[in-house]
């Protein structure tokens, strides 16, 4: 396990190092000046940020009520696409398994972790880097990514898993074993949802093509790894990727009007060190 975490840390740093210390991700953002410190007497804690998360959640969950014809057409196309992959699940899954080797299995075991707890470490790195180097955008990435993860992976995907009740490949119960509320939780892939929600937030905030390529490349690797590991069928991964991407992009666009009023930073008081936060709506 330690070897895996060391590899993840080294891999992440190798990707970010050239840009962190040159023109980019954590450089001082002239278009978005440093956020000022919280005034004395501020509320502190995470209560106010919780209000922002509730706003994000309500916006995403209620959004279908406001969709126009174009939006419903897109939704229909996405659903049809997932259905098409579903019909090909057997062939695609078997093809990946036939080409599985010890090397690909070892790589998949590492890459899939980017759709789990390490993704929150990446969010923390963005916020810490932004706070230390006065970069507003990097801090916004962290806040948006956490909100997107909560809504996409924590609420939407988790709910669909319970409702659809699809068995995993490793359960050996067939490709199309769906038992609503039956305890199985293969559809959609939670790791893939998490990975694509983070990737889409990062890509939405930065215009550089190579950042998009790395972000979505790693997220795609997570999805492929979950299939290679026998944890999901391809359609589970495609559904997770769509959910994560759509929610991530929507959160970034919705939160733009709030970020200038969101402040989070380390603080100390008579009781010790902690985190202070303020949101003004």
Taking pLDDT < 50 over at least 5 consecutive residues as the criterion, the unreliable ranges are 13-24, 30-45, 263-281
Output the CATH class name.
Answer: Mainly Alpha
Calculate the mean pLDDT score and round it: 81
Summing up helix and strand content along with how strands pair, one would put the structural category as mainly alpha
Spatial shape: globular
Query: What is the strand tally?
Result: 2
Strand order of the largest sheet: 1-2
Largest sheet: 2 strands, antiparallel
| Distinct helical segment count | 10
Which fold name corresponds to the CATH topology?
Vanadium-containing Chloroperoxidase, domain 1
Our Rg estimate from Cα atoms comes to 20 Å
Distance between the termini: 43 Å
Describe the model.
The model is unreliable at 13-24, 30-45 and 263-281 (pLDDT under 50). 63% of the residues lie in helices and 6% in strands. The longest helix has 29 residues, at 136-164. By secondary structure, it is mainly alpha-helical. The chain has a two-stranded antiparallel ribbon with strand order 1-2. Helix 5 (102-111) crosses helix 9 and helix 8 (190-205) runs antiparallel to helix 9. The chain has one domain (72-279): Vanadium-containing Chloroperoxidase, domain 1.
């Amino acid at each position: 396990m330690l070897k895996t975490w060391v590899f993840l840390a080294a891999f992440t740093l190798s990707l970010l190092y050239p840009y962190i210390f040159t023109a980019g991700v954590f450089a001082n953002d002239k278009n978005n000046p440093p956020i000022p410190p919280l005034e004395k007497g501020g509320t502190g804690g995470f209560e106010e940020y919780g209000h922002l998360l509730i706003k994000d959640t309500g916006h995403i969950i209620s959004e279908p009520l406001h969709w126009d014809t174009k939006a419903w057409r897109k939704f229909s196309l996405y659903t049809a696409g997932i259905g098409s992959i579903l019909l090909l699940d057997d062939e695609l899954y078997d093809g990946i398994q036939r080409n599985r080797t010890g090397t690909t299995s070892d790589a998949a075991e590492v890459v899939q972790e980017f759709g789990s707890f390490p993704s929150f470490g990446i969010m923390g790195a963005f916020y810490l880097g932004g706070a230390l180097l006065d970069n507003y955008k990097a801090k916004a990435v962290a806040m948006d990514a956490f909100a997107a993860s909560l809504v996409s992976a924590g609420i939407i995907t988790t709910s669909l898993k319970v409702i659809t009740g699809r068995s995993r490949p490793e359960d050996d119960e067939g490709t199309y074993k769906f038992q609503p509320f039956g305890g199985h939780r293969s559809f959609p892939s939670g790791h893939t949802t998490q990975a694509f929600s983070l990737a889409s937030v990062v890509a939405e905030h930065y215009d550089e093509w190579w950042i998009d390529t790395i972000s979505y490349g790693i997220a795609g690797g997570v999805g492929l790894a979950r299939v290679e590991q026998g944890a999901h069928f391809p359609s589970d991964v495609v559904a997770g990727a769509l959910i994560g991407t759509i929610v991530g992009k929507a959160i970034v666009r919705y939160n733009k009007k709030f970020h200038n009023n969101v402040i989070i930073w380390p603080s100390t008081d008579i009781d010790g060190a902690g985190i202070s936060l303020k949101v003004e709506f």
